[in-house]
Amino acid sequence: MKRLLLVTILFVLISLPVGSVFAQFTPSAMTDMGDDYFGLPLCLPGMPVDGSCLLYGPAQVIAEMKAAGFSYPPRELPAAAPPSELGQMPVFVAKINLPEDQPAPIYASFEDAVAGANPSRYIDRGGLRFVSYFTQRNDANGKAYVQLTTGEWMRASPAAYTSFQGLEFFENPKNDFGWIVDLTDSYIAPSFGAATTGKTYYRENLIQVYETVEAEGVFWYKIGPEEWVNSLKARVVTLNTTPPEGVQANRWIELNLFQQTIMAYEDGRLLFATLMASGLDPFYTQPGVFNIYEKKALETMQGAFEADRSDFYYLEDVPWTMYYDQARALHTAYWRTFFGYPQSHGCVNLSPGDAKWLFDWADEGDYVWVHDPSGQTPTDPAYYGPGAP
């Protein structure tokens, strides 16, 4: 009997026009029928939720994603990496590969350099010493020698530098974004005690951020449905198109010391964003509003802070330098292998490609806004000296 009844009902449904079948299962019809209905069709992903279909399966997942701020289909950032040619250095650089407690001799000829005879001058001892050189590089006795731009020779090894570049935007992003700065797994919830998702992220991976919460002493960033990373491993850009107090122009550079990010704005638009390396305690990068007062395509930087000059540095022909606060500047740091952490003596270190982008875009007189949302950086001007690389 049950089988006969089911066959009869199916025959009636098949005989009805398709529209009338679905018309039987409107919300009002369902109310009239009580529990005596066969159910609504499943909603298709993206369909309006108006009661005409059942919100289960993929449609339910997509609706939950939308409620949580995730777009469907996933929305790409309106940005792209600038041309890689921007990262091509205008000079060749080499690292002096002698013990840091020894002065580095310079010789008039390659033969003298190999023999270690008749040095014409020295570069002081120190741990951070780089020189620029012609394309000429010779090896002898398993050691590398380069010919300096002065024509002299010394023992040094050609240095590799990072190809990392930030993003150039063609419209303002709809949500926060950023970069992973250290190897990390993501978590299913904003807690170190939560299970991991099985996904691993690597340094310089790009992420989009849809929610930020503070828990367990760090910030947690939601980068996907039930997927979180924390501020120990990620740096995030939050759009801020309103000129900050003290900036009296429609274009400025923002330096976020907490996030270690740098952004360029013009006419209410984010044009560029990337990672930087600012001053490391106690050589902080000073917060405040400044103006770029000098641009130099190449600049040799040297000096020391300790009385015994044990921290002496010598950085020859640093490309694309823009001074904005005494000796503090935005510039290439070809000696850095990664960014996103404080590392300098007060200057703002950038990859070659990022420094070139900003150098080409910025003009002398443009504003530089330096701030630390965490409040950890000293703000008293009396704390600060002139600064250094």
Describe it for me?
Strands 2, 5, 6, 7, 8, 22, 23, 24 and 25 form a nine-stranded mixed sheet that branches. Strands 1-9-20-19-18-26-21 form a seven-stranded mixed sheet, with no helix packed on it. It has a three-stranded antiparallel sheet with strand order 13-10-17, with no helix packed on it. Among the domains are: 39-73, no CATH class; 87-158; 174-237, SH3 type barrels (Roll), CATH 2.30.30. By secondary structure, the chain is mainly beta. The radius of gyration is 30 Å and the shape is elongated. The chain has helices at residues 2-15, 18-23, 27-33, 58-67, 110-115, 352-361; strands at residues 79-80, 92-95, 104-107, 119-123, 128-140, 143-148, 153-155, 157-158, 167-169, 176-180, 184-187, 196-201, 206-209, 211-215, 218-224, 227-230, 234-237, 251-256, 261-266, 269-275, 288-291, 294-303, 313-325, 328-332, 348-350, 367-371.
Q: Which terms would index this structure?
A:
single chain, 14% helix, mainly beta, nine-stranded mixed beta sheet, SH3 type barrels, elongated, 389 residues, disordered N terminus, seven-stranded mixed beta sheet, 6 helices
Structural class: mainly beta
Q: What is the distance, rounded to the nearest whole angstrom, between the alpha carbons of the first and last residues?
A: 90 Å
The global form is: elongated
Fraction of residues in helices? 10-25%
Number of helices: 6
Low-confidence stretches: 1-27
Task: Please give the radius of gyration in angstroms.
Answer: 30 Å
Write down the overall mean pLDDT: 89
Number of strands: 26
Proportion of residues in extended strands: 35-45%
Assembly state: single chain
Q: How many strands, what sense, and barrel or not for the largest sheet?
A: 9 strands, mixed
